Automatic annotation (TrEMBL), chain B:
Keyword Cell membrane: yes
Classification via InterPro entries: ABC_transp_permease
Subcellular location: Cell membrane
Entry's Gene Ontology molecular function annotations: transmembrane transporter activity
UniProt entry tagged with the keyword Disulfide bond: no
Protein's name in the database: ABC transporter permease
Highest taxon of source: Bacteria
Stretches that traverse the bilayer: 6-29, 64-85, 92-114, 154-175, 206-225, 292-311
GO cellular component, one term: plasma membrane
Length: 511, 323
């Protein structure tokens, strides 16, 4: 079992001025699960996309099973037995599962002939790996967990021996992630080789045999998982010691800043997503809302921040009502001291094509200090942005760079800096560290706690239970649109997990 | 003239004016489903009509005329393809440029070669398409009801007319039942998925553009070799834009396209019929209003009043892997 499935030698790749991979060497042993970790923008996805033939390396060699191969396009990678599940899914959203799986592997010019065969093969794979999915379902109607399953099936359908998974668990619920890991174990026991990219060090420790660490385009270390620790890996990734759990003192809750009463919200199809939710948020405390993704947290945030209209209920900000069932002007909410870090930074939080400094004032562009009469005061805007870049350690420190060119973690810092810096009374944060590396997580967590200590009221929504437990002073658990329980931050993971699954909640409600 | 007869005549001319719309809209279907917006249908059709008229006039062969129409139209499509696929240019700009270039150069070349004010010489019988009469059409015509429908509506059209209507199910079959169609639709929705599946995005899109060129060639040839006997400057008169509107109105689906083109064709035929004939109760309807109706209907559709028209997701966006 000591043969090498994949060997990369001296891989180098630049995107224009960005040197994404610098002379990378990597050996992956056959029949093992090999983890790859690194900060945002370290070059992990780039390296894997080169292996998959999606990008071309500027120089370097790829060896598969001891033979040097030229991988000019994904076709060559598929032929060499390599399959990849991309960080951003590569699915045609209005196609069915079956069509997506067949695409590129149709067997013949006319579809009908291949369809029956594909169905049979899909059934076999489903049975073998417990990867059930309705072949006739349309992708856009499936939850992300199932979409990812389709991606995995796509690779298995093409008989991949080497499977690359790029941050597969970022979008999964804990139960789904567990299931995925069982599938990976099973694939491994069949002799398949797996490369797993993730930001979650716990997953690395739990499932990988070996782990390689990347930092700023370089491969800095490879360790046998059994002989390393989370602390060592975090330090290797960031290049300095990292606090995995940020210190925080006692909360000193004061007046109620935000009160939510009987809030009910429906989604565009008319399904009740938030069902009669009530809670208070006080100055100087962090209230965490835990729950499996899709249980109404997103809609709750949207309703409070004025993006989505509520059906009924009341919300008071600083004692004064917000017209959540009517028209809410987000600008007015900002003026009244409510800041919002949206869950989906790409679609709601940023305009990726804008320069950093332009994004740094989005929504605050009418602020007098950025204006010169009716014109924008570009100098003031840039100076302000540069100051914020320094404060929040946003990298690269260039206010004129297009926002799309920052890594995920740094984009998140841009949004946080914008919303926190105005000193709002109430800060609503959704998924502050989704897809963000440990170094940036530490920084963001510290800032959130600082806000609390300055006497701000913070409402935190996250699907990461660890994050909720590390930051919150009180935890509300949402299930199926309802708040099914309130717990202290030292409640056990198991207890919260049951609430999140709706098990405990039903009992509590019945009592 | 009884009412039934009026209807038959109206429907007959509906079919006649719908044919180029159907060809052009199906042409647009192939490119837009592959993710390339094509506002240049008008220009391609016009170029094809000119090529057909000119070559048929010179060679006296209708088939060489048709071939020339297709070649010119495919060549123009490839220009659009090169600009928008290979050079990743703006697809609207490229399409508009083609429309302008063709509108101008057909007049200049026509005048230079034939000196008839931008026309091509009138075509003799052998150099243009002839209508096809079904067997017994004349005998059955007298049978009430069925007779006129058979003799005037079904029989007596050009071969290109029948081809246009045959292209509708054929296009559907290609798009939904073949590997080529599956990949073509995929490349218009998410080229990344196509690329990672090991298929060349660029080659797929070029093939779509070529299909478009062929169909526009038929549309143009129909105008100058069938509907009229020769090319007249600017003879497409906005049909390419109407076809584009029909494509949107039909939500990018083949059978809907046929219905939309027939509807727009009917409005056109109706407008011609109305000229000088005031409607009872309503009175005289301005022609301009009738001509604008296809666009008005499309705008109403786009505003969300008649369902939703969702364009192919990757439409108009060049495929760029490395920023
Ligand atoms: N297609 C592209 N064009 C230009 N630059 C790119 C492209 N893809 C990635 N980059 C740049 O290359 C660097 C490495 O990016 P990559 O996506 O490989 O990082 P990563 O380690 O996967 O990060 P993350 O954890 O955020 O996914 C980044 O600076 C990124 O901006
Ligand atoms: Mg990545």
């Amino acid at each position: 079992m000591d043969s090498i499935a994949i060997e990369l030698r001296g891989i180098d790749k630049s995107f224009g001025p960005v040197h994404a991979n610098k002379n990378i060497n990597l050996k992956v042993r056959k029949g093992t699960i090999h983890g790859v970790i690194g900060e945002n923008g370290a070059g992990k996805s780039t390296l894997m996309s080169i292996l998959y033939g999606f990008y071309q390396a500027d120089s370097g060699e790829i060896h598969v099973d001891g033979r040097q191969v030229t991988i000019r396009d994904p076709n060559a990678a598929i032929a060499a037995g390599i399959g990849m599940v991309h960080q951003h899914f590569m699915l045609v959203e209005n196609f069915t599962v079956l069509e997506n799986i067949m695409l590129g592997a149709e067997e013949s010019q006319i579809l009908n002939k291949g369809i029956a065969k594909a169905r049979d093969e899909l059934k076999r794979l489903e049975r073998e790996y417990a990867l059930e999915v309705n072949p006739d379902a349309v992708i856009e109607e499936l939850p992300v967990g199932l979409q990812q399953r389709v991606e995995i099936l796509k690779a298995l359908y093409r008989r991949a021996d080497i499977l690359i998974l790029d941050e597969p668990t970022g979008v999964l619920t804990p139960a789904e992630a567990d299931h995925l890991f069982r599938v990976l174990e099973q694939l491994k026991s069949q002799g398949k080789t797996i490369i797993l990219i993730t930001h979650k060090l716990r997953e690395i420790m739990a499932i990988t045999d070996e782990v390689s660490v990347m930092r700023r385009g370089e491969m800095v270390a490879t360790r046998t998982t059994a002989e390393t620790s989370v602390e060592e890996l975090a330090e290797l990734m960031v290049g300095r010691r990292v606090l995995l759990r940020v210190e925080k003192g006692e909360a000193k809750p004061a007046d109620v800043k935000l009160s939510v009463n009987g809030l009910t919200v429906k989604d565009s199809r008319g399904v009740t997503m938030v069902d009669n939710v009530s809670f208070n948020l006080r100055a100087g405390e962090i209230v965490g809302i835990a729950g499996v993704a899709g249980n109404g947290q997103s809609e709750l945030l949207e309703a409070i921040s004025g993006i989505r209209r509520a059906v009924s209920g009341e919300v008071h900000l600083n004692g004064k009502a917000i017209d959540v069932t009517g028209h809410v002007d987000p600008r007015e909410l900002r003026d009244r001291g409510l800041a919002h870090v949206p869950e989906d930074r790409h679609h709601v939080g940023l305009v990726l094509k804008f320069e950093e400094c332009e994004n740094a004032i989005l929504g605050y562009h009418h602020d007098k200090r950025y204006l010169n009469g009716v014109f924008l005061n570009v100098d003031a805007i840039r100076k302000d942005a540069e100051q914020r870049i320094a404060e929040y350690d946003i990298r690269p420190p260039n206010a004129r760079l297009k926002t799309a060119n920052f890594s995920g973690g740094n984009q998140q810092k841009i949004v946080l800096a914008r919303e926190m810096e105005r000193g709002p009374d109430v800060l609503i944060i959704g998924q502050p560290t989704r897809g963000v590396d440990v170094g940036a997580i530490e920084f963001i967590h510290k800032r959130i706690i600082e806000m609390r200590d300055q006497g701000k009221a913070v409402l935190l929504v996250s699907v990461e239970l660890d994050e909720i437990r590390a930051l919150s002073d009180r935890i509300l658990v949402m299930f199926a649109g309802r708040v099914v329980g309130e717990r202290d931050p030292d409640a056990t993971e198991g207890e919260l997990g049951l609430l999140m699954a709706g098990v405990e909640g039903r009992k509590e409600a019945a009592e | 003239m009884d009412f039934f007869h009026v209807i038959v005549v109206l429907l007959e001319s509906t079919i006649r004016v719908s044919v180029p719309l159907i060809f052009a809209a199906l042409a647009g279907l192939f490119t837009e489903r592959a993710g390339i917006f094509d506002i240049g249908l008008e220009g391609k059709m016009l170029g094809a009509a000119f090529a057909a008229g000119a070559v048929a006039a010179i060679t006296q062969s209708v088939w060489l005329g048709l071939l020339a129409a297709i070649l010119i139209s495919v060549a123009l499509s490839l220009v659009h393809g090169y600009a928008s696929i290979t050079q990743r240019g703006n697809q609207i700009v490229s399409g508009v440029a083609i429309n302008f270039i063709v509108a101008g150069s057909t007049v200049i070349l026509g005048e230079a070669w034939f000196r008839q004010g931008g026309r091509t010489p009138a075509l003799a019988e052998g150099a243009r398409f002839q209508t096809i009469n079904f067997p017994f059409a004349d005998t059955i015509r007298e049978v009430p009801f069925i007779g006129p429908i058979y003799a005037d509506l079904l029989s007596g059209h050009f071969i290109l007319t029948y081809l246009a209507f045959a292209m509708v199910p054929l296009s559907w079959w290609i798009l939904y039942r073949t590997r080529f169609g599956l990949r073509l639709r995929a490349v218009g929705e998410n080229p990344g998925a196509v690329d990672t599946a090991g298929i060349s995005v660029i080659w797929m899109r070029y093939r779509a553009v070529i299909c478009c060129g062929i169909l526009c060639g038929f549309a143009g040839a129909y105008l100058s070799l069938a509907m009229t006997a020769g090319f007249v400057k600017g003879m497409t008169a906005g049909k390419g834009y109407i076809a584009l509107a029909a494509l949107i109105f039909a939500k990018w689906r083949p059978f809907n396209i046929m219905l939309a083109c027939l509807l727009f064709g009917f409005l056109d035929a109706f407008a011609i019929r109305l000229q000088g004939n005031p409607l009872p109760l309503i009175g005289q309807v301005p022609v301009q209003l009738m001509q604008a109706l296809p666009y008005i209907l499309t705008v109403i559709l786009l505003a969300g009043f008649i369902g939703k028209a969702i364009p192919p997701k990757a439409g108009g966006v060049p495929y760029v892997k490395e920023r």
